[in-house]
Amino acid sequence: MDKILQMRQKRAEIIKNMRALVTAAEEGQRALTEDENTKFEGMRAEAEQLATSIVREEQLRGLEGGDQPAPAPAGARSVTATGQRELENGIRTARFVKCALLAKRTREAATAIAERLYPGDEQLRAVMTEGTASDGGVLVPENLYNEIIPLLRQTGITRSLGAIEIPLPNGNLTMPKQTGAANFTWVGENKPIGNSKITMGNIKLSAKKLAGIIPISNELLADASIAADRFIRDEIVSGIAESEDITALYGTGTENAPKGITVACAANKVAVDSELTAETIYTLVGKMLSVKLTNPALAWRIPGVLWAKIYGMQTASGSFIFRDEMNKGTLCGYPFKIDNNIKVGTDANGKTQIFLGDWKHFLIGSASALQISISTDASYKDGSTVVSAFENDLTLMRAIIREDFGVRYNEAFVFADGIFTIPSASQAAESQD
To answer: What is the pTM of this model?
Structure first.
């Protein structure tokens, strides 16, 4: 049998015996006796020594080149120089969170859980020794948090369109911005030159708290499959991405919430209050083209309920106006994203909006890494129902990040408001005629 596998099996058996020793004492509602405590400490020392030996043997094999993995099948993830298969972004973060949650629930060392569930993930074990769970909480290490950022850029529409992320030292940042340019005029010989000055303003960002609670079944936590890891990762990422996208559009800018485009750029609203027409789309493009922006990279955000309307728009002669280019992912020459976080009203006409802007002028200020707190005893609300984690054998994960949003230039965004998704009675009658 392979030497590393033997050591791992031996270590797992030792840890199992340690757990049995503690469980027997807990069931007897007593503390460990002196002999039991001595035995426990001896087993702990042996387990730690085995862990060190395993790491040393793996490192030696990597240096000797004697532990090279077999060629990967077509389509598989690549393999690193140490023989570890590369993981999808965010998977190792999910594993870290799972091990920390299990450590809280079982009182087993997080490093031991990482070794047992993911024996081949050396990087995870190294990080677990640096970021240990204590008092029910853990700060996900920066290198693992960075795995989440690429996923947020892929999942979140605002980030994927080019929004800029900047750090917020001490939770606050004031950025200068130019609000007016110097003016140059033609003058005659020996005539006085008029003067002008560049006017400046600033953008103030102050970190707000974005938080959520995710209930996770303890059976899922104990599952070491990649599907379980993806579930934990996707719950974190999708929750943050959706909240960011909604707030980027509709944030009120109050003390506790960032300011979104509908508030910051309210002066750039185009009131429609009817069905969407090609003329409205041209108006939005025209407003953006009339703004002095440096190397603009415009992009649309369109709710799914309007996609079919735009796709089916026709000229008087029956030709489709936008269909060909929409098949290529653009509208009036600019890329678009379907964003179903854009609100659709509950009024009789189901009013909604579409947005167009240069998203590199949307700023996301980040004040802290992802903070995870965990509890097996707390409760959470599912609608109006209070659910107990203890009664339902759940572990609650509370995720918190601190961010703020800002718009560098208000003129960089425009949106049409009050677009009907349900035609009025008169419009419906006209279309039937």
So the answer is: 0.71
